[in-house]
Amino acid sequence: MDMEFSPEDLAFQKEVRDFIAENYPDHLRGKQDEGEELSKEDYLAWHKILYKKGWVAPAWPVEYGGTGWTPTQRFIFSEEIARADCVRLLPFGLAMVGPVIYTFGTPEQKARFLPRILSGEDWWCQGYSEPGAGSDLASLRTAAVRDGDHYVVNGQKTWTTMAQHADWGFFLVRTDKDAKPQEGISFLLIDMKSPGITVRPIITLGGEHEVNEVFLEDVRVPVEQRVYEENKGWTCAKFLLAHERTGIAGVASSKRGVERVKAIARTELDGDRPLIANPFFKRKLAELEIDLTALEFTELRSLAGPNAGKGPGPESSLLKIKGSEIQQRLTELTLEAVGHYGAPYFRGFGANDLGGDNEHPIGPDYAHRAAPTYFNMRKTTIYGGSNEIQRGIIAKMVLGL
Amino acid sequence: MDFTYTETQDMIRDTLSRFLADTYDFETRQKFINSDAGRDPAIWTALAQELGMLGASFSEEQGGLGGGALENAIIMEELGKVLAVEPYLPTVVIAGGALKAVGGAQAKALIPDIIAGGAIVAFAYAEPQGRYDLANLRTTAKKDGAGYVLSGHKGVVYAAPWATHLLVTARTGGGQRDRDGVSLFLIDANLPGIVRRDYPTVDGSRASEIYFENVAIPGDALLGGEGAALPLIERIVDEATVAVCAEATGVMQKLHEGTLEYTQQRKQFGVPIAKFQVLQHRMVDMFMEVEQARSMTIMGVLKLDLPENERMAAVSAAKAKISRGAKFVGQNAIQTHGGIGITQELAIGHYFKRATMIEGQFGSADHHLDRYERLTLAD
User: Fold this and answer.
1) Which of A2, A276, A298 sits opposite B379 (nearest CB)?
2) Chain B 316-375, CB below 8 Å of chain A: which residues?
3) Residues whose CB falls within 8 Å of the CB of residue B337, separated by 6 or more in sequence, listed in order
4) Dist. CA B151–CA B304, nearest whole Å
5) Which residue, among A8, A290, A316, would best test binding to B if mutated, counting the most B CBs under 10 Å from its CB?
6) Is A288 on the interface with B (CB under 8 A)?
7) Are A20 and A26 in contact (CB under 8 A)?
8) How many CA atoms lie within 13 A of B318 on its CB side?
9) Which of A91, A125, B81, B211 could bond A166 through an S-S bridge, CB–CB 3.0 to 4.6 Å?
10) Mean pLDDT of chain B
11) pLDDT at A351
12) Going by C-beta distance under 8 Å and a sequence separation of 6 or more, which residues neighbour residue A266?
């Protein structure tokens, strides 16, 4: 047992670090530093750079465009990406529907969709939740009725992240309303430009437009866009939920977040001393950092321990629960640290669909997004299977209750 | 990067766990901890001579299996799972660790005896006024010809009633709380002038108050430099703290498993109480504390050889987290058991008692958070 990187791993680390330093776009760095909301083009800019290098989908099997890296190399890569604060690659294509297609799809589906996911030509969104089906996802009611070689889809999806930019969506739909809830569901790939689809924004607490409602009215979907068997879509959904949870611990980015809070707390004053010298604030910071260390070594154990390489198991729920709690506590401490200047509302520079402005925001730079981020990050314990659902998964799958 | 165990390490764990399953079931343990001796000496002998377990963390030149801190952690976790009172921590981890660090004639003389099971060492470091400060010492060792004269009072010295040797911290110079002037001595436990008051501890072990009444000790009892032993003491206490974290992991795992088992048998309102979601989620929270305790123990083991400040921050992080986790898991195990949990009848309460003593052993969560903050969160 050791936590040292081998010389090969260290060389790989340097290669990744150098690549990021030489290739990460300056204009993105600038926008991130100013706390600006990122556009579709911004996300795709970094995606395409990694695609050109062949590094866009490290977790995929080599035959479909993966890198063939060891788990340690993948870990190093994600650490370096987070350390350099690169924009995250959106998971919907690369981490979600991609693995479903290469695991369950037909050769035609693989050939048609996988290359365009890798290249970033297609932007994907996830049609899972419905107004009446959240944690109880299997109670979904959006229905697909067979009509010749098409399905006709009617219903409503919600919390559809980034659907406003999406070219394609993967949807769970009911194809047998008489079967048990989990047994009558199919997994459909739907062109978001199909007639009958309407996307309506939902604005979240921080003022962001991340999520949407998607209405489907007599949307015609060719049968060859169904992945896996009819009424077996729940198998894909479960597989995907397990995938969604891996990497959700967010250790590397939370480490960066801790350093950021420390820097703020060394700058902000509390009487005649920096805030970090306040024993109460310092204690909260220490406990957060220690909890993050516990999460880090729990993740390392699952990555390089006796069960490494066996795929994400139900214990990945632990990483989701603790990782999301830590992300939230970070935003809480940041907001607490900035004091008064958490209050001014900054909507982002320039024209965006929320009516941003060009005035420089009020207060220190690090304070602009503190409150919106705190508000926004309440989502982390709710999405991807709420933390209560995750506890249910551990109770059932790990503890056998 | 590798978080797997070697075949030898797996073998150590399996061998010990099988041996303890045969020799250390709860009823047997209760019998011998309540006997006059407070333990079954045959078990210690078997650990040494049949299993070779006491040599696992010594080098092959020293007559051991070539292991180190990780082997200590594996063994301590297994001992924790059966609430063993065997003096592995003070004898092998602490005294063995000090002797490995110092080397020389003293190591050569005693390590073979430790491995063979003949020597039992108790660690006399705590004093009534000192709390968790290793340098806060009133016990003195005054130079007297070639040797020293030892005077003072050491408190709550676990395993002292069984010990053949004592490892003692004492001042050879400096003021009561100075870092300089602290020395470490390894002495015979039965020297004239050593007065013990022995007692049982709440967690089933035995300990003593020890009064050194002008005890004449030889000069070669000194381990390390005179007046300069504090860094060595801090190091071996850090190693011991990680070993206790490993023991805690074993104790916490059993508290959790015992609770899982009990809730599936105990029926109320016509169903096993494990069916209640409020209890399921609590048991998941306990599970997560156990897993994190395991992670933090491994983290602590792997960071023991880093530079001093990083080592101390890592050990404090582990102990702070595990002290909190042990309290959480222990209290919730009792609560979930209900009335039967607060009796002496089930093992669960005895695990809770050991978990509770571990919380404060070598420093409470608050003590270690303080030390962590001093090392990592300067202004």
Assistant:
1) A276
2) 317, 320-321, 369, 372-373
3) B259, B262, B346, B348
4) 33
5) A290
6) no
7) no
8) 35
9) A125
10) 97
11) 47
12) A274, A275, A276, B379
CA–CA gap between residue A220 and residue A146 (Å, rounded): 10
CB < 8 Å to A3, chain B: 1, 3, 302
Predicted complex ipTM:
0.95
The pair phi, psi for residue A254, each rounded to 5°, is: -70, -35
Yes or no: say if A77 and A55 are a contact pair by the CB < 8 Å rule.
yes
Tokens representing B241?
């703290």
Active site residue A4: no
Q: How near does any CA of chain A get to the CA of B259, in Å?
A: 11
Residue B108 neighbours by CB distance under 10 Å = 11
Domains, in order of start, for chain B: 7-119 (1.10.540.10), 123-228 (2.40.110.10), 231-376 (1.20.140.10)
> Does the pLDDT at position A365 exceed 70?
yes
Indicate the pLDDT class of residue B262, thresholds 50, 70 and 90: very high
CA distance B293 to B242: 11
Query: Of the listed A36, A244, A268, A299, which one is catalytic?
Result: A244
Asked if B280 and A322 come within 8 Å (Cβ–Cβ), the reply is no
Alpha-carbon torsion (B53, B58, B62, B64), positive or negative: positive
3-state secondary structure of B272: strand
B331-361: pLDDT as tens digits: 999 999 999 999 999 999 999 999 999 999 9
The three-class DSSP label of residue B36 is coil
